[in-house]
Write a structure and sequence with these properties.
The N and C termini lie close together (about 10 Å). The protein has a single domain, classed as Rossmann fold (3-Layer(aba) Sandwich). About 40% of the residues are buried. Strand 8, helix 4 and strand 9 form a beta-alpha-beta unit. Strands 1, 2, 3, 12, 13 and 14 form a six-stranded mixed beta sheet that branches. The protein has a six-stranded mixed beta sheet with strand order 5-4-8-9-11-10, with helices on both faces. Strands 6-7 form a two-stranded antiparallel ribbon. The chain has about 210 residues and is an alpha/beta fold. Helices cover about 20% and strands about 35% of the residues. Helix 2 crosses helix 3.
Length: about 210
């Protein structure tokens, strides 16, 4: 499957690259016709730093107290906090960076010792990939419970332009990937055409079938 992978560079920073593999892939929420590989951004500190620098350009005028990282974006989140505290509205701030815990019911929760970084704080949500937007919906419900104030949403890749009234600040969009599409699992044209699923995918990567 890796032999089918192609690579594209970010429009404004050629050092930031993302891989994509065309095919038929199943997520928890949907089926997609391209697997987006963001391994380098999540695991290589130079790429993560460049990614954070690029994301920060549209956030300098946004008040952010806490960056909540989903889908393995913690290293990017730390670099992003550093970028934001170096100038703009958040200059000199000590920005919190944290990740919610999943409980036995698969709900996003924060323990008592981390709730102070959420309660009444201005929150930026950082996610690796947005396709259906359901993960964002879950996080927004979580923030409502813990009285967090959502002020921005950022993503490495997003197939959606906005969510919950916010423009999704992303580096790569569906327009950058040839013929990218996502389908409800029960109404997938690839399934109807008899095309087998290549792999199960999530934020950690893929498992071939």
């Amino acid at each position: 499957m890796e032999s089918r992978m192609s690579e594209i560079s970010a429009r404004h920073n050629r050092h930031i690259k993302i891989g994509y593999i065309p095919g038929h892939f199943a997520t928890n929420h949907s089926h997609v016709n391209n697997y987006m590989d963001m391994t380098m951004m999540k695991t290589q500190h130079k790429m993560a730093k460049e990614t954070a620098k690029e994301l920060s350009t549209k956030l300098m005028s946004v008040q952010i107290d806490t960056i909540i990282c989903l889908e393995g974006t913690e290293m990017i989140g730390a670099f992003l906090a550093s970028e934001l505290s170096g100038g703009g509205m958040n200059i000199g701030s000590d920005i919190n960076v944290l990740t919610p815990e999943l409980n036995s019911n698969n709900q996003m929760v924060f323990r008592d010792n981390t709730q102070k970084a959420v309660w009444g704080k201005n929150i930026m949500l950082l996610i690796s990939s947005v396709s259906t937007g359901k993960t964002i919906n879950r996080m927004v419900e979580c923030l409502q419970y813990y009285n967090g104030n959502l002020t921005a949403i950022s993503s490495i890749f997003s197939a959606r332009k906005e969510s919950h009234g916010f423009e999704i600040n992303c580096i790569f969009s569906a327009d950058d990937v040839p013929n990218y599409d996502t389908y409800p699992a029960g109404d997938c044209p690839l399934c109807k055409a008899g095309q087998k699923v290549d792999a199960i995918i999530n934020s950690f990567g893929y498992s071939k079938i």
